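Hello again,

I reread your note about wanting to compare the complex against the isolated chains. To keep things tidy I'm splitting this into two emails, and this first one only covers the full assembly. Below are the input lines as submitted, including protein chains and any nucleic acid or small-molecule components. They are followed by the predicted structure of everything together. The single-chain runs will come separately.
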Amino acid sequence: MTMAATDSSTALRPTPQKRKPIKGRWLSYVRKTWPLHVLLLPALIIALIYNYTPMFGIIIAFMDYEPWLGVNESPWVGWEHFEYLFSYPDAKQVIWNTIIIASLKIVMQMFVPVVFALLLNEVRLTWYKRTAQTLVYLPHFLSWVVLGGIFVDILSIRGGIVNRFLGQFGIEPIFFLADGDWFRITVILSDIWKDFGFSAIIFLAAIAGINPALYEAASIDGANRWKQVLHITIPAILPIFIVVVTLSLGRVLDAGFDQIFNLYNPLVYDKGDIIDTFVYRVGLQGAQFSFATAVGLFKSIIGFILIVISYRMAYKWAGYRIF
Amino acid sequence: MRDSNLRKKRHLPTMLSLLLTMTLIISACSSTGGSDGADGNTNDDGTSEIGEQVLDNKTSFKFDPPISFTTALTFQQQTDRDFKPGESIEDHVHLRWMRDELGLDVSYDFVVPNSEDYETKMRLLLSGNQDLPDVMTAFTGLANDLITAKKVMPLNDIIDQYLTPNLKALYEEYPAVLYPVTRDGVIYGLPNMYAMDEGTIMWVREDWLQNVGLDAPKTLEEFEEVLRAFTEDDPDQNGQDDTLGLAVSLKDGPFQWMASADPIVGMFSDYVAQTTDPAQFWHEEDGKLIYGTTHPAQKEFLAQMNEWMELGYIDPEAGIKDPTKAAEMVASGQAGVIFGPYWMNGYPLSGSPEFQPYPNPAGPGGQVGRAEKQMVHDYVMFNADFEHPEAVIAYINKLFAANFGEDDPYYDPQFKNGWHEGYDYVEYEGEVYHNNFEENGLPVSEWPKPDDPTVTYSIKFPITGAPFVPYLGDPAFQKFKDDPDAQSNSAMETRIKSSQARQLDAGLVRISQNDTAIHNQFAGPPTKTMLSKSELLTKLESESYLKIIYGDEPIEYFDQFVEEWKANGGDQLIQEVNEWYETTK
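Full-complex prediction:
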């Protein structure tokens, strides 16, 4: 919730600083621009009601919240839930799992879509290009509830298609979903399989926006395809790439609830249990609302800090401002 | 730049933050408006005079003017087989009957698709101090909240005065069903119970038995031999090594609603292992309750499962499969034995007539046992401000009387053949039909759904769910086994009469082992540790069980696991459960 709010606050900032009028001309400025402010008003109100007001809910992280007492009467307990989180026997394991799985996903989601977009851009056959693009982004629209069942089948050690394929090369069947290390690999690979096509759209759009004159000039200067990619395409999509990376760094504690929840089982708890599945079991199945909120708040704060840091870094090194 | 916002929003709202958001909005909006009317008292005069007079005639009563009340429901329409065209959950034959014949006008405050949503919604109403429905249903946890919040009506007087003697007798026979909603002798809820006909039996592939030259197993040795033969001796005779013995789901512990392992647990001891809920299973030993999952007897069970797992007799993917997924193994002809309830005849074994029901085999000491599920589904509770509980009780009496039969003072003969003619049954030329309308030569106009002879409509009861009475239907299985055309004398019997032959057999197998059923003896409200340590304890349990079965840890690890379990809240749990147990003595 914290992150949602930060996001909107910056996005919806009404008057960019550049256009701020000098003192004394305030009235004429308002007179000129008031219709714009009125147009902005509904969006501001919606953001206030749906993004900011609910943020007060984080106070239950510092309470012993009971539904029948409500927010007003539940007793305050200070940092108790946070202390409990860090003294919880599984907390370290769960946080560590989350960071590992999420960072590997972020790294993969950083590079695979870019590489795919660059490769697809070099394809000459239009029909092939279009078909490939459509096919790879389709999985994005499948739900993990459905895919969970499918993956159990195709990764089966009893005649699953993946293990049969590996068997062709004399590899013993691998129990992907019941072996902790393989589980992590499965989760990361299936995540990239599901989403790289969709993530590539943004890069394809950026590539499509490059001025063709640049390529023409380059080829006149004798640059081959490889040199053109290196010196035109990649620099041109770099800003978008930085935006994507910056934003994804905020997800370092977000390893993908839907996916893990539908694939995991007690055999891989030690390597595959993440903060979100943990919160689900504690918070929703055990109805420990305050504790679950405390964990959620912890996640949001870490995410917020990371976004701020990466934003600064992007500005300092790449000179790029997102907001 | 817009794009950056869109991208992030996809990732942010987890289920939890959404839930909390809603909680806060609602509580923020309403905390000022609600009045604090809940002081736990019912109206002093208890009930209205209109109600009393009308109810003098027990079999046929009608409230005039009609009594209106609100309730809430968990319901999701699955298919077009739920309602006749033009009907809906808000307006269907049963509600019309209640309104026109009984003078009871039901409306829903909300209808949600699943029980999580239901509980969330109720808790939101609670925390926002908003009006609750007049009549509610609640699982133990929510019931506990409602009682603690003093929002529900004490029912002792109402039960004494209005409830049908048959239900009162039932509560006396199974006093534990009321424990979770009783505080200091005050009863706050009426249990909606299960038919208790789902006890686990063994389904075995008959043709495979013949192919390997074995009989259905009665002992552990025979059982093991069958598993071995089904795994190694090519029972389907296709020349390929593509079969195994037991299809089972171990992902959520040994006791499941299907593809269960509880009869194997029951071969070794009277203590049931259930690794997903600290409230189950508790067993009395020397006047104290002990926890089944951590009892040393489970070592034998685990060692046996580990052995079979290594030998390949058990589905190697049992640990990652839920019951539905595990049962695909038998439906697709890959496994020859599965444990589950009698209704597996219809699903998932309807396409596998080779599977036949058998009693659970006996363990090394001749021990036979199965885990019996909890008896209560949820509780009917009345808003403390509701004025006509007696009217709703009268309606409940009438429904249950249809099952108890004509001895019940509330028995209404119109329900003898089913609930509503043209919906769940058809009467045609003096005969009653529940299915097979086409085969029985009924004209299309008589079918409940004129274009589809396979459809019978189930009745959507607004408060009670289908009104079941535990074990009440058992005698009917034998009755209709002996004579499929015997006269049905109650709604319960009618339901059983319409079963297929194999389902009747399966039911009889289950009944023959009713005395081996092991019940959970903890029936109190959730204790403090159950709420706060549930995640930690159940994770430890399910992880340890699977690791031992899969051989990742040796069987000696069990003792270490129990030590850890105790240190992480197990000791407290045992103490709290026994404190509750003391109060029931």
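For quick reference: Chain B touches chain A through 62 residues (CB under 8 Å).

B.
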